[in-house]
Structures are given as C-alpha cells and as structure tokens.
C-alpha cells in the first residue's frame, strides 16, 4: 500500500513517514518544493537503512504524491496553507481518503487555537472537498518529537473522527499498523474538541511546573475492564 504525506518535509510529516515506512508501507512525500521532498525522502531511506530497515520512500510534487497514493493521503501542512492546498488537490483526491492532521493553532501563539468558521479543520476540509471524498481527522495530538524518536513506542492514543465509518476504520487500521492504539471518537464535529486539545498539550509540555515534555492523550480503561 502506498501512503502519501502532503507536507511531509515538516517534523510531523517526517515522523509519520518514518513510522509508516518501518511498518512496511510505501511512502510518497509531497511538497510544493519537489527537490526538498526528494532530499527528505532519501534521508529517511538512509536513516532507516542504518537501522536494518529497507524502506520505500520517495519525494514528489504535492500533485504527483496525491495521485500516487493507493487510497490514503495524509495532510500535514501549516494551518495557513490548509485550505488553499486542499482546493488545489481536490480533483486528485477522488476515490481516496484524506487524513487531516492539521491543528488550527493561533498565529504566533501555539498555546491557543483559532478555529475556522466550519467548527474545526476537519469539518472545513470536508466542506472544501464535498461529501463524496471522506475526510478523517486523526493524529492531532501526537508530538513530532515522539514520532521521530524510533527508540520508543508512541506514548499516546489516537482519537479518530469523521462522517464515514468505513474510512475511519481504514485509518484506525493504519494507526494500528504503526503500533498506535486508535479509537473512533465520533463524527467530524468531534474534531472541535480533539483539535483544541493540542494547544493544551503544548502548554503543559512547555510548562516549567510539569516534569516532562512531549506528552499526549491516553484513554485509560478501569483496572477491572468491567462494564458495571
């Protein structure tokens, strides 16, 4: 399976490319700067080869990367570029699933959100693409540092939302392929809560009063696992 990551030259995109390649997926990194995408892809292949993993990662333009995806396209661009990128790629996303991981962080203040009029970035993406192209919001709350640190497993759970159940199940399976626990968190409107958690995590991770950084969200079942 080929998974494409649009904006894959950024820290979060690179981390996901690493994790997906290690899990056996073919990965295409898409960027407005095709040369940069090709360089980043080559660096990932070399990095994983040093660790005994033969990876299939390549770079391409955003358009070519979108077309190359078997089914799933991950959008990992800055919030400011979100809408214009999707508008450009919309015709190429027919018959594919868009996994939107973008968080609407406020300009100049990563400890706050600036939610779009649609309610969330996930809902905004669905409005741009129309109902025929399923949008799934996921991977909003995972630290880029955690994704890139292959010496440790992912330390948090993945909350997945969207209006298409089959698409959500496919995305949850992709997360599980990367050894992440994923949960169906509801319809696209749930992204309003999920996306808003990220700046809270950033605030905690930056706080001098908190004895850790790069924390994420974890769903904690009761110890007895019962349904009383």
Write the layout of secondary structure elements.
Layout (H helix, E strand, L loop, with lengths): L1 E5 L4 H12 L3 E6 L2 H16 L7 E5 H7 L3 E4 L6 H8 L7 E4 L4 E2 L2 E5 L7 H9 L5 E3 L6 H5 L9 E5 L2 H13 L4 E3 L6 H16 L22
Parallel strand pairs: 1-2, 1-4, 2-3, 4-5, 5-8, 9-10
Antiparallel strand pairs: 6-7, 8-9
Helix pairs in contact: 1-2, 4-5
Describe what you observe in this structure.
Helix 7 links the parallel strand 9 (158-162) and strand 10. The protein is globular. Helix 1 crosses helix 2 and helix 4 (82-89) packs parallel to helix 5 (121-129). The mean pLDDT is 94. It contains 8 helices and 10 strands. It is of the alpha/beta class and 228 residues long. It has an 8-stranded mixed sheet, sandwiched between helices. It has a two-stranded antiparallel sheet with strand order 6-7.
Helical stretch tally? 8
| Largest sheet geometry | 8 strands, mixed
Oligomer: single chain
Mean pLDDT score = 94
Number of strands: 10
Shape: globular
**Unreliable runs, pLDDT <50, ≥5 residues?**
none
How far is it from the N-terminal to the C-terminal residue, by CA?
41 Å
């Amino acid at each position: 399976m080929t998974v494409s990551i649009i904006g894959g030259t950024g820290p979060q995109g690179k981390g996901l490319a690493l994790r997906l390649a290690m899990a056996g997926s073919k990965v295409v990194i898409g960027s407005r700067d095709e040369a940069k995408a090709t360089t980043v892809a080559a660096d990932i292949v070399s990095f994983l080869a040093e660790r005994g993993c033969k990876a299939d990662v390549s770079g391409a333009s955003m358009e070519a990367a979108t077309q190359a995806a078997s089914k799933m396209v991950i959008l990992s661009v800055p919030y400011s570029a979100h809408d214009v990128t999707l508008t450009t790629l919309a015709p190429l996303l027919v018959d594919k699933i868009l996994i939107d991981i973008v968080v609407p962080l406020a300009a100049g203040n990563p400890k706050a959100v600036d939610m779009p009029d649609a309610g969330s970035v996930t809902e905004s993406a669905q409005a741009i693409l129309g109902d025929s192209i399923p949008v799934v919001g996921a991977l909003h709350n995972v630290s880029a540092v955690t994704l890139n640190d292959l010496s440790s497993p992912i330390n948090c759970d993945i909350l997945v939302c969207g209006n298409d159940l089959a698409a959500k199940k496919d995305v949850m399976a992709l997360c599980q392929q990367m050894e992440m626990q994923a949960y169906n968190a509801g319809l696209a409107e749930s992204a309003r809560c999920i996306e808003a958690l990220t700046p809270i995590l950033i605030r905690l991770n930056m706080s001098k009063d908190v004895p850790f950084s790069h924390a994420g969200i974890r769903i904690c079942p009761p110890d007895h696992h019962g349904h009383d």
